[in-house]
Amino acid sequence: MAEYTKLEKVRLEKLRQLREMGVDPYPRRVERTHTAQEAIKEFKRIEGLEDAEPIQATLVGRLRSMRPMGKITFADIEDGTEQIQLFFRADTLGEEQLDFFNQYFDLGDFVQAKGEIFRTRSGEITLSVSSFKMISKSLSPLPAAKEEVVDGEVIKYASLADPETRYRQRYADLAVNRDVRDIFRTRTSAIRAMQSFLDGQGFLEVETPILQPIYGGAAAKPFTTHHNQLKQDLYLRISFELYLKRLLVGGFERVYEIGRDFRNEGVSFKHNPEFTQIEFYWAYADYFDIMDLTEEMVAFVVDKVVGEKKLSYQGEEISFDIPWERIELREALLDRTGIDIKAHDTGVSLANAMGDLDLEFNPEESRGKLIDDLIDSCLEPTLIQPTIIYDYPREISPLAKSKKDDPQTVERFEGFVGGMELCNAFTELNDPLDQEERFLEMGRSYEEGDEERHPMDEDYLRAMRYGMPPNGGFGMGVDRFVMLLTDKHSIREVLLFPHLREKGE
Question: What is the per-residue pLDDT for 210?
Fold first, then answer.
């Protein structure tokens, strides 16, 4: 049984009294003629026109504020479109009905109100209420409900400021913070803009399996589950890559997917175990083609969502004008750290060179992982304006094609914006024999039982043996992109229901 606070007990008593009076606090049917936004727009359209009929409207929404003042009460309700003021007047409703509203309605309740739209002397578009009813009684006050006296009036309002509570009770966060709802409207707009751009480029949106018998496409630890009837261990996908590239074998030339990936790894301001990714694969393209398309797509989305090709992120003005700066990885690390990774062909040699940089790293790691450490610590935080870093070591890019003149370097790039990695792309490997050797190489490079290594995917190799066209591939974290678009430093701000530790841990 739930344990109720004093305020909740007061509301429960009101609920009991309402039912005793024959009032249904949760009716099955609701009337509505306009959204708040529609009512305001319609009133503005006819305002000032001679012989215009007054706007009669029936509105619904959640009570946001109540301001009783003797024989009148002002209140604000909000629906999914806008907030609008209600005007309750004893002369119109009768004192009994006005008292009923003031006594039994609380912040957070949902109300249906009918009346005429007008503009008050203070200039606010308002519904003069002729009838009303409760359509959902709120038993728990919205978080941090407060009362404040302003110019002799008692104003009730709600706020929610504690981030931990906001994430755990996102429903309450959304209910009281309009700007949070705007974040997720922006998120949806960004995804639609990406779809619009890629559709316009001739790409086909597809869906690939989330439950996979073999995980692959990224160096990450998977979540494992079990199918009872099939008696088979399965993995939540860590990437769409290997399935999307199978479709290139099947004859599709341009495919993309936007969906969830899952990685059983750490949580940080830019990592969540469950995240949204966009990946696309383009037959007969290489990583230079993908660079160009990436710049075009990101600029297109920013322009569609923000209204221009620049935005402010964490106090920095960022421009997405084309082209972005492009720097070779070796050159970028040499400039930032003084270390020439080309001069260190083993992990031990590179670890020795890194020893003087005052970095936290594991000297036992492979050369590839140490290079990743250098990128994360010394390079990524410095890349504020959109920047492409290209040509990566083969050992950390097992699915990318090697450069013709340098077999140990692959045609891979990462895009960085706002001090964080935004996207990753390759000229994809399409030689099945080379791919098989890469899988074996990756298996030898990781300790036995290390779940970040790429397992051998025989079916993927079989698909490649049928013939895979040359192609370029791209992946981008949608959540991080939305962080940029909404100027949020934490990924939790752009996820409706982020993963959190158990309370008390």
Answer: 96
Give the pairing type, strands 83-89 and 110-119. Answer: unpaired
Q: What is the pLDDT of residue 164?
A: 82
Task: Tell me the backbone φ, ψ of residue 227, rounded to 5 degrees.
Answer: -95, 115
pLDDT of residue 93: 97
The DSSP element (H or E) to which 283 belongs, if any, is strand 274-283
Do residue 185 and residue 215 come from a single domain?
yes
Q: What pLDDT was estimated at residue 151?
A: 57
Look at residue 501 and tell me if it is in a domain: no
d(CA 272, CA 500): 9
Beta partners for 112? 60, 133
State yes or no: cis peptide before 323, omega within 30 of 0: yes
Residue 340 lies in a domain: no
For the chain, which ranges sit under pLDDT 50?
145
**How high is the pLDDT of residue 68?**
96
Q: Is 286 exposed, middle or buried (0-12, 13-18, 19+ CB in 10 A)?
A: middle
Q: CA-to-CA distance for 120 and 74, rounded, in angstroms?
A: 11
Angle of the 287-306 helix axis to the 178-200 helix axis, nearest 10: 140
Identify the sign of the CA torsion 396, 399, 400, 406: positive
Q: Let me know whether 69 and 154 are in one domain.
A: yes
Q: What is the DSSP string of 341-380?
A: GGG--SHHHHHHHHGGGT----TTS-HHHHHHHHIIIIIG
CATH number at residue 397: 3.30.930.10
CA distances from 410 to 422, 428, 473, 476 (A): 19, 9, 13, 19
Give Cα separations from 122 to 76, 82, 89, 125, 129 (angstroms): 15, 19, 17, 9, 18
Whole-angstrom distance, CA of residue 48 vs CA of residue 143: 41
For helices 478-486 and 178-200, give the axis angle rounded to 10 degrees. Answer: 120
Rounded-to-integer distance, Cα 487 and Cα 315, Å: 9
Strand blocks (E) in 94-205: 110-119, 125-136, 146-150, 153-157, 204-205
Cβ atoms of 219 and 334 closer than 8 Å? no
Tokens in use for 389?
Answer: 């870093």
**CB distance 167 to 496 below 8 Å:** no
286 lies in which domain range? Answer: 179-324+385-494
Nearest residue to 485 via CA among 438, 422, 413, 400: 422
pLDDT number for residue 142: 85
Specify if 366 maps to a domain: no
SS3 label, residue 220? coil
pLDDT of 145? 47
pTM of the model: 0.89
Please state, in angstroms and as integers, the Cα–Cα distance from residue 229 to each residue in 38, 226, 233, 397, following that order: 53, 9, 11, 36
Longest dimension (CA), the chain: 88
Nearest 5°: the CA angle 62, 67, 73 is 90
